């Protein structure tokens, strides 16, 4: 064995089984680094919430842009179906307390017919009599609105009146039969 | 490898913290000793050891039980120390060594040279950083010259020549220490 090799072996033997006690804080440092930090957890959670919000916002934007893309024809159809109901509720009271409204037509024999009468045949003059305390200008504007609504080709555009489901739905929403009805034969 | 250690390693692979603590307790002294050997300060040794342990636990799944776990750990800490050394290489003042001229009589005297581990470590500490790295990697940790050259980014022949010079330098330093010790005794 050469001098070099003897030296190398001696050195190597000296370092076999070498051991130096590691400082106590090193263990904590190591495991603190290994553990997922609460900061990163918090960041992940915040990111997730933001992502969900962003997705919700995006879908809401998408919906609104779809509704903006409706054709004018569709818009008028919506008005004819949806808009008249609240206006009639506000203005047409049918005098539930006095129960004096009288229908001149003798066509109120079924729910379907009554519904059609509601939407198209209530005369503004009759309303003026009912709302005696309302001032003239507001009544005029309401009258104008009702006249406009009369001109709109209501319901018949999109709703198929022959469909039982449509009729039923419309009846449920619009049937506002007064408490006392006197029908002249 | 003993069954207890295999079970511990398997538990560590499953990410069980208690098993990781046990493995740490068992090998931390060995790993820290290697880290100290390759660094100049205790702070650097702690940094290297910490980085090495994190690597150990994060890459434990790649360890095969057919190999020596201690050898695998040692390799990781040495590679981490090399990375640390190369990272700080720009701060290291490069010193080249003059050829050591040892006479045949000196070389003969080295055979019977008496020295302690402390004296050897002190002598290794006097080597220029590059030479010290080559010496420790080759002699103590059993790296081949090719590996050393790749790891340190030096030429294969540079590794060989630096090892040869480092060896002779150490022998001379140790011989000088031994001579002075004998003089003091007498």
Structural class of chain B: mainly alpha
Instruction: Report the C-alpha radius of gyration of chain B, rounded.
Output: 19 Å
Calculate Rg of chain A over CA atoms. Answer: 41 Å
Helicity level of chain A: 55-70%
CATH T-level topology of the largest domain in chain B: Arc Repressor Mutant, subunit A
Outline the low-pLDDT stretches of chain B.
Answer: none
The tally of strands of chain A reads 2
Strand arrangement within the widest β-sheet of chain A reads 1-2
Shape of chain B: elongated
Helix segment tally of chain A: 9
Spell out the helices and strands of chain A N to C: HHHHHEHHHHE
Brief account:
The complex is a heterodimer of chains A (185) and B (186). Chain A is an all-alpha fold and 185 residues long.
Give the helices and strands, then pairings.
The complex is a heterodimer of chains A (185) and B (186).
Chain A: H1 3-15, H2 24-34, H3 38-68, H4 72-82, H5 84-91, E1 102-103, H6 111-120, H7 124-130, H8 136-151, H9 164-174, E2 182-183
Parallel strand pairs in A: 1-2
Helix pairs in contact in A: 6-9
Chain B: H1 3-13, H2 17-37, H3 42-58, H4 69-87, H5 104-111, H6 117-125, H7 129-140, H8 145-152, H9 156-185
Structure characterization notes:
With 185 residues, chain A is mainly α. Chain A is 64% helix and 2% strand. Chain A contains 9 helices and 2 strands, in the order αααααβααααβ. A two-stranded parallel ribbon of chain A has the order 1-2. In chain A, helix 6 crosses helix 9. The longest helix of chain A is centred in the N-terminal third of the chain and has 31 residues, at 38-68. Chain A starts with a helix and ends with a strand. The model of chain A is unreliable at 71-85 and 87-133 (pLDDT under 50). Chain B is an all-alpha fold and 186 residues long. Chain B folds into 2 domains: 3-88, RNA polymerase sigma factor, region 2, helix turn helix motif (Rna Polymerase Sigma Factor, Chain: A); 97-185, Arc Repressor Mutant, subunit A (Orthogonal Bundle), CATH 1.10.10.10. Chain B contains 9 helices and no strands. Chain B has helices spanning 3-13, 17-37, 42-58, 69-87, 104-111, 117-125, 129-140, 145-152, 156-185. Chain B is elongated and about 60 Å long. The mean pLDDT of chain B is 88. The interface between A and B is medium-sized, with 22 and 31 residues.
